[in-house]
Amino acid sequence: MNVRAIGCSFRDAPIDLRERVAFDDAKRDLALKDLTARFGCEAVILSTCNRVEFYLAKPDGEPPPDGGIMAEFLSEHHHLPASAIRPHLYELADDAAVQHLFRVTASLDSLIVGEGQIAGQVRQSFEASRKAGATGPLLNALFPHAVKAAKLVRTKTGISQGHVSVSSVAVDYVRQVFDRFDDKTILVIGAGKMGRLTLTHLRELLPKKILVANRSPEKAIEVAAGCDGQAHPWDQLDDALIQADVVLSTTGAPEPIVSLRRFDLLSPKRSGPMVILDIAVPRDFDPRIHDGERAFLFNIDDLKRIREQTIHQRQKFIAPAEVIIEQERRKFVDDWTRRRNGPVIAQLTKDCDAKRQAVLNQLLGKLNGKLSDADRAFIEGAFRLFQNQILHGPIDALQVASREGGSASLLEAMRKLFRLNE
Amino acid sequence: MGITQFCFGLSYLTAFGLELYRPTRPGRWARLAGIFFAVAGLLAHTIFLAYHQPSPASPYGSLLLLAWVFAVFYLYGTLHREAYAAVFVLPLVLALVGLSFVFTGHGQDGSWFTGESFWGMFHGILLLLASVGITVGFLASMMYLVQARRLKMKRNPIGGMKLLSLERLERMNRRAVNLAFPLLTVGLLLGAMRLWQTPHETGGWTALKITSTVGLWLVAALLMFLRYGAHLPGRRLAQFTILVFVLMLVALIASHPFVPGETG
């Protein structure tokens, strides 16, 4: 098969090394050109926050570059000593490389198993290599199969179900209460970092209005400007709470800013339920406000608990996902072997068929009139069986060698031995 | 004709069994088998209704027709992979078909177009359509209460069965009841006029069917007031809609004065 996966990931390499050996688009294109020119191999570079990997292939002939060579290559491109890189590089060949790529694409090797980004990143990396002319028959077959296998894993198991970021879980809760958002008002209280991330997700719902209330009017204006919202005076927070359908609260206040009593007083002035995402620590809203009717209040612990549950649930899908990956790996290797050896085996079989038929015709011509139809059929069957038994050994050896990555010399030997090129 | 309620009832029951089995062994075959049995049940149900033409004004006919409408809803939902279709709609279909067993013979083998006067038939059809609306409201309310409980308990928002949002369920409930109430009102007025014209055929104004239907209308009117006048929150409205549905069932299965042999 002649394919290698060489790289480093969050499992073995520290983040400062991963950052230094990462490729942006420009560096990647340059590296791809260099790889193909220098080593004459097919190449795909996968560079994400959690891993930098090279997939190198040579359909025929000698194997692609190994870990030592790639450490040197990285050293040249990133101006780091190769000795600092090499200990963190893993190197997988042939079947193991195929399996590794399939596992990576299906997000079984991710920091958070089942995360959805990696399949897209693999696809993009492959496309970039293809456009740069760095891929060939082997990687052109391998990467689409990896993406297909990842899709199978996603659809046949629940490994991608649920969200694993606090802000996504918060939005999931909002979606369970509201269906449309073009008539909804979101109120942002405070301006914490986590709040901004959640607000980014909430903005994707395209609400009618975003109000931002902050003790500091300047801060409120700044946050409002960043989300196409309106700054709202802090001393009129109750008015904003009456208008709001979704509240995102993330202040650094030491005491709750909305007590049950305060909420009870403004509640009759409101219509419809309110979702409160209280991700402040200490909490901004009295937890007793959550009554499942007027208000649905979710604090940071609730959101983190759901995230942990989702991560835990995904673990049980790993075993079925690994089975799918193994099936797809075998399928790919068999398909590739058939594809590589198919023409040679077809030619060999055709030649032998022609020779067998010629000998048979001669024999049957000499025995003409002395054989019954049953005798003729028996002789023809015996010759076919003989041919199959003779060819079984070489064909089987070729298939095994292809799976093990060393079929090129055997293919050449078969061509010569059976005079297939003539 | 060899098709009985038992045939399609059993088909729906098998589809329901397969729906319950599916979460334990996810796969295409259980889903396809479930759809097969649901389609077979619906086909048998349709042929049965077309052949017997039970009166929509009879308990037997109205329950079977209502079950047919919701069997169509179920099939639509399950084809669109809506998990709630199996959990909420199919048991309702089974319950309606099961109830119709009790009333077998009451209003059976009539004719949709010739057996009763036009106004009698129109009255029956209006009440049947109102029943469809109330039943949709009931299903939306059941789902609303389940969803509201899940949110109150702070369960995983996308774990377990996928349900519609509270807002959508509330809207579904509102629209269904808004549609059902005028139909119920007109149907009731037509019934009152017929009762006025032929009081000797109907068992009088105190017959269970009449009192239960009037009771249903009053509670439905109260539901409209609570929604638009008192602005009751969604959970209370859902509970009230369920009460309206129960009253509707009572009205449906109460003996009907316009069906021969069931008066008084």
What does this structure look like?
Chain A contains 16 helices and ten strands. By secondary structure, chain A is α/β, with parallel strands linked by helices. In chain A, the strands form two sheets. A six-stranded parallel beta sheet of chain A has the order 7-6-5-8-9-10, sandwiched between helices. Chain A has a four-stranded antiparallel beta sheet with strand order 2-3-1-4. Chain A folds into three domains: 3-159, 2-Layer Sandwich (Beta Polymerase, domain 2), CATH 3.30.460.30; 166-311, Rossmann fold (3-Layer(aba) Sandwich); 342-417, no CATH class. Chain A is elongated, with a radius of gyration of 32 Å. Chain B has 264 residues and is an all-alpha fold. Chain B has two domains: 1-112; 116-264, no CATH class. Chain B is 74% helix and 0% strand. Chain B contains nine helices and no strands. Chain B has helices at 5-21, 28-52, 59-79, 83-102, 118-152, 166-197, 199-202, 208-228, 234-253. Chain B is flat. The two termini of chain B are 32 Å apart. Classes of the chains: A alpha/beta (422), B mainly alpha (264).
